[in-house]
């Protein structure tokens, strides 16, 4: 009379009575699918993508400023005055409630601004002719590619291997230098460089501190207003891009993540040590 087999164990040396390719029904009893998977609502996805639409709108407004300078349809003094006004209002929101320490910071910041403006105005004739020998078509194509990389590598508040504040900032400034050579006078180039500094350097500091999703609405409305006076085709492209990014992409992400994503967990996973603070939070 044959002896019954020993119960199968997850131990290679105690399963000599079983075939090498034998799989016990209890082998996958500890398998977990989508364990602790964080699910998102469509509203959360919609609000999270507003920063992308905001940057696209800001870059579009920057190109609109260049267009008016390039066509000489708006005086550069008007653009410079309006940019200083908007920057001043944004700076007041940035510093918040005034006090003695903030007053000292305002004085130091004012000195820095004056120094930068003087250097920029002094070197604007050089920057105006820096890429003068390159054809206009090449400049416009290069600017489009550089601004695409600016949007791709911009910090939207999520860590990623493509995120780089330094490279994104350099792309924004480099695009303005390329476009400055297409303008008629060094003063036009100076105004464009001032606007680019406000858009690519100062604006991220302000929005990082006080950005809210509803702030996208006035930015989009202003962009639509100015695009409508330039080209209806560009307006359609802009609105189509916003629709795809703000409506279609959140819907696809939320549906694919919540319904099609599969994470398999089990005893074979690496052991993770949870600190006491994280354990208390959970």
From TrEMBL:
Example GO BP: GPI anchor biosynthetic process
Tree of life domain: Eukaryota
InterPro entries with a match to the protein in the record: Plno_GlcNAc_GPI2
Subcellular location: Membrane
GO cellular component, one term: glycosylphosphatidylinositol-N-acetylglucosaminyltransferase (GPI-GnT) complex
UniProt pathway annotation: Glycolipid biosynthesis; glycosylphosphatidylinositol-anchor biosynthesis
Pfam families for the chain: GPI2
Protein's membrane topology: Multi-pass membrane protein
Segments traversing the membrane: 45-67, 79-100, 112-128, 134-153, 213-229
UniProtKB keywords: GPI-anchor biosynthesis, Membrane, Transmembrane, Transmembrane helix
Record family assignment: Belongs to the PIGC family.
PANTHER family: PHOSPHATIDYLINOSITOL GLYCAN, CLASS C, PHOSPHATIDYLINOSITOL N-ACETYLGLUCOSAMINYLTRANSFERASE SUBUNIT C
Protein name: Phosphatidylinositol N-acetylglucosaminyltransferase subunit C
The species this protein was found in: Polypedilum vanderplanki
Lineage, top ranks: Eukaryota, Metazoa, Ecdysozoa, Arthropoda, Hexapoda
């Amino acid at each position: 009379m044959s002896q019954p087999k020993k119960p199968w164990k997850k131990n290679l040396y105690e399963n000599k009575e079983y075939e090498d390719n034998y799989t016990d029904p209890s082998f996958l009893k500890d398998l977990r699918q989508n364990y602790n998977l964080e699910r998102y609502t469509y509203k959360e996805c919609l609000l999270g993508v507003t920063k992308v639409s905001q940057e696209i709108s800001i870059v579009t407004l920057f190109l609109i400023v260049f267009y008016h300078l390039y066509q000489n349809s708006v005086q550069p003094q008007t653009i410079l005055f309006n940019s200083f006004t908007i920057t001043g209002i944004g700076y007041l929101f940035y510093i918040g409630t005034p006090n003695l320490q903030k007053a000292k910071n305002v004085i130091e910041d004012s000195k820095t601004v004056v120094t930068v403006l003087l250097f920029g105005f002094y070197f604007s004739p050089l920057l105006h002719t820096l890429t003068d020998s390159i054809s206009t078509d090449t400049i416009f194509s290069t600017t489009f590619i550089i601004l695409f990389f600016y949007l791709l590598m911009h910090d939207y508040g999520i860590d990623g291997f493509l995120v780089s504040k330094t490279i994104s900032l350099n792309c924004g400034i480099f695009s303005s230098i390329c476009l400055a050579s297409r303008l008629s006078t060094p003063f036009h180039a100076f105004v464009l460089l001032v606007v680019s500094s406000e858009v690519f350097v100062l604006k991220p500091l302000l929005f990082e501190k006080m950005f809210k999703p509803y702030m996208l609405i006035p930015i989009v409305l202003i962009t639509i207003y100015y695009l409508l006076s330039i080209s209806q085709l560009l307006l359609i492209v802009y609105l189509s891009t916003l629709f795809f990014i703000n409506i279609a992409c959140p819907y696809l992400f939320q549906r694919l993540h919540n319904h099609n994503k599969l994470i398999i967990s089990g005893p074979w996973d690496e052991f993770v040590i949870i600190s006491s603070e994280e354990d208390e939070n959970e």
